Amino acid sequence: MKFDDKTIKDILLKENYVTEGDVKNAEDFAKTHHVSFIEYLLQENLITKDLLGQAIAESFEVPYADLNSTPLTPEQIQKIPEDIAKKYRAVIFSEEKDKIVIATDTPDDKNLLPGADETFCWKVAKRCLFAYGRHQC
Questions:
Q1: What is the pLDDT of residues 34-55, one digit of tens each?
Q2: Long-range contacts of 87-93 (CB under 8 A, 24+ apart)
Q3: Distance (Å, rounded) from C-alpha 122 to C-alpha 91?
Q4: Cβ count within 10 A of residue 20
Q5: Where do the structural domains in the chain lie, given as residue ranges?
Q6: What is the CA radius of gyration of the chain?
Q7: What is the DSSP letter of 97?
Q8: Long-range contacts of 28-31 (CB under 8 A, 24+ apart)
Q9: With 92 labelled, which of 5, 19, 32, 115 sits at a CA distance of 20 to 30 A?
Q10: Alpha-carbon gap, residue 76 to 67, rounded angstroms
Q11: Mean pLDDT, to the nearest integer, of 71-97?
Protein backbone atom coordinates (compact mmCIF):
# COMPACT_ATOMS: atom_id res chain seq x y z
CA MET A 1 0.00 0.00 0.00
CA LYS A 2 1.32 3.41 -0.88
CA PHE A 3 0.86 6.34 1.47
CA ASP A 4 1.35 9.97 0.53
CA ASP A 5 3.67 12.18 2.56
CA LYS A 6 0.77 13.91 4.33
CA THR A 7 -0.63 10.61 5.59
CA ILE A 8 2.81 9.46 6.76
CA LYS A 9 3.42 12.81 8.50
CA ASP A 10 0.07 12.59 10.26
CA ILE A 11 0.73 9.02 11.40
CA LEU A 12 4.26 9.74 12.63
CA LEU A 13 3.16 12.87 14.50
CA LYS A 14 0.07 11.26 16.02
CA GLU A 15 2.06 8.30 17.29
CA ASN A 16 4.90 10.59 18.52
CA TYR A 17 7.59 9.06 16.31
CA VAL A 18 8.72 12.51 15.16
CA THR A 19 8.29 16.10 16.33
CA GLU A 20 6.82 19.08 14.50
CA GLY A 21 10.41 20.33 14.14
CA ASP A 22 11.45 17.06 12.49
CA VAL A 23 8.55 17.40 10.06
CA LYS A 24 9.46 21.01 9.22
CA ASN A 25 13.11 20.08 8.62
CA ALA A 26 12.08 17.10 6.49
CA GLU A 27 9.70 19.21 4.40
CA ASP A 28 12.31 21.90 3.84
CA PHE A 29 14.98 19.37 2.92
CA ALA A 30 12.62 17.45 0.63
CA LYS A 31 11.71 20.62 -1.28
CA THR A 32 15.26 21.87 -1.77
CA HIS A 33 16.82 18.46 -2.53
CA HIS A 34 13.93 16.97 -4.53
CA VAL A 35 13.67 13.89 -2.34
CA SER A 36 10.77 12.50 -0.36
CA PHE A 37 9.92 13.46 3.17
CA ILE A 38 10.56 9.84 4.23
CA GLU A 39 14.02 9.76 2.66
CA TYR A 40 15.08 12.64 4.89
CA LEU A 41 13.75 10.96 8.04
CA LEU A 42 15.54 7.73 7.16
CA GLN A 43 18.77 9.48 6.13
CA GLU A 44 18.86 11.46 9.38
CA ASN A 45 18.13 8.28 11.39
CA LEU A 46 15.01 9.84 12.86
CA ILE A 47 13.11 6.69 11.93
CA THR A 48 13.94 3.28 10.48
CA LYS A 49 11.96 1.30 7.93
CA ASP A 50 10.80 -0.98 10.74
CA LEU A 51 9.74 1.99 12.86
CA LEU A 52 7.79 3.33 9.89
CA GLY A 53 6.07 -0.04 9.49
CA GLN A 54 5.29 -0.11 13.21
CA ALA A 55 3.80 3.38 13.07
CA ILE A 56 1.60 2.50 10.09
CA ALA A 57 0.48 -0.72 11.79
CA GLU A 58 -0.44 1.24 14.91
CA SER A 59 -2.50 3.62 12.79
CA PHE A 60 -4.51 0.60 11.60
CA GLU A 61 -4.62 -0.72 15.18
CA VAL A 62 -3.02 -3.97 14.10
CA PRO A 63 0.25 -5.73 15.03
CA TYR A 64 3.38 -5.22 12.96
CA ALA A 65 4.94 -8.28 11.38
CA ASP A 66 8.69 -7.71 11.16
CA LEU A 67 9.66 -9.75 8.13
CA ASN A 68 13.31 -8.82 8.62
CA SER A 69 13.52 -10.41 12.06
CA THR A 70 11.21 -13.29 11.20
CA PRO A 71 11.93 -14.20 7.59
CA LEU A 72 9.38 -16.30 5.75
CA THR A 73 10.17 -19.86 4.77
CA PRO A 74 9.65 -21.04 1.20
CA GLU A 75 6.81 -23.21 2.53
CA GLN A 76 5.02 -20.17 3.97
CA ILE A 77 5.42 -18.27 0.72
CA GLN A 78 4.09 -21.14 -1.36
CA LYS A 79 0.97 -21.81 0.74
CA ILE A 80 -0.94 -18.99 -0.97
CA PRO A 81 -1.00 -19.34 -4.78
CA GLU A 82 1.23 -16.71 -6.38
CA ASP A 83 -1.53 -14.92 -8.29
CA ILE A 84 -3.65 -14.57 -5.14
CA ALA A 85 -0.67 -13.57 -3.00
CA LYS A 86 0.24 -10.83 -5.49
CA LYS A 87 -3.36 -9.63 -5.87
CA TYR A 88 -3.88 -9.26 -2.12
CA ARG A 89 -0.20 -8.56 -1.29
CA ALA A 90 -0.40 -11.24 1.38
CA VAL A 91 1.66 -14.07 2.83
CA ILE A 92 1.17 -16.52 5.66
CA PHE A 93 3.19 -15.05 8.51
CA SER A 94 2.60 -17.82 11.02
CA GLU A 95 0.41 -20.83 11.54
CA GLU A 96 -0.68 -23.20 14.24
CA LYS A 97 -2.73 -26.34 14.13
CA ASP A 98 -6.05 -24.58 13.53
CA LYS A 99 -5.25 -20.97 12.65
CA ILE A 100 -3.06 -18.81 10.46
CA VAL A 101 -1.86 -15.22 10.57
CA ILE A 102 -1.86 -13.40 7.25
CA ALA A 103 0.65 -10.57 6.75
CA THR A 104 -0.21 -7.85 4.24
CA ASP A 105 0.35 -4.18 3.62
CA THR A 106 -3.39 -3.73 3.02
CA PRO A 107 -4.91 -4.74 6.37
CA ASP A 108 -7.94 -2.51 5.79
CA ASP A 109 -8.95 -4.46 2.65
CA LYS A 110 -12.29 -6.03 3.58
CA ASN A 111 -11.91 -8.49 0.71
CA LEU A 112 -8.48 -9.70 1.76
CA LEU A 113 -8.30 -13.34 0.77
CA PRO A 114 -12.03 -14.06 0.61
CA GLY A 115 -12.69 -17.70 1.34
CA ALA A 116 -9.33 -18.18 3.06
CA ASP A 117 -10.94 -20.33 5.73
CA GLU A 118 -12.36 -22.68 3.13
CA THR A 119 -9.20 -22.64 1.00
CA PHE A 120 -6.75 -23.38 3.80
CA CYS A 121 -9.08 -25.20 6.25
CA TRP A 122 -7.76 -22.98 9.05
CA LYS A 123 -9.27 -20.13 10.95
CA VAL A 124 -7.67 -16.86 9.90
CA ALA A 125 -6.77 -15.51 13.32
CA LYS A 126 -5.29 -12.16 12.34
CA ARG A 127 -4.04 -10.00 9.54
CA CYS A 128 -1.00 -7.83 10.13
CA LEU A 129 0.89 -5.02 8.55
CA PHE A 130 3.42 -6.53 7.16
CA ALA A 131 -0.16 -6.26 9.30
CA TYR A 132 -3.56 -7.57 10.75
CA GLY A 133 -7.29 -7.27 11.67
CA ARG A 134 -9.53 -10.03 12.90
CA HIS A 135 -11.52 -12.27 10.59
CA GLN A 136 -14.21 -14.47 12.07
CA CYS A 137 -15.02 -17.92 10.71
A1: 988 899 999 999 999 889 888 9
A2: 88/112, 88/113, 89/1, 90/127, 93/65, 93/67, 93/128
A3: 14
A4: 9
A5: 5-47, 74-129
A6: 17
A7: S
A8: 30/5
A9: 5
A10: 12
A11: 84
**CA 132/CA 137 separation, integer angstroms:** 15
Give the model confidence (pLDDT) of 91-121 as tens digits: 888 887 777 788 887 777 777 766 555 444 3
Helices and strands counted in the chain (H then E): 7, 3
Residues making up the chain, counted from first to last: 137
Q: Give how far Cα 119 sits from Cα of 1, 40, 57, Å.
A: 24, 43, 26
pTM of the model as a whole: 0.70
Chain mean pLDDT for the chain: 78
CB 72 within 8 A of CB 79: no
DSSP class of residue 58 equals: H
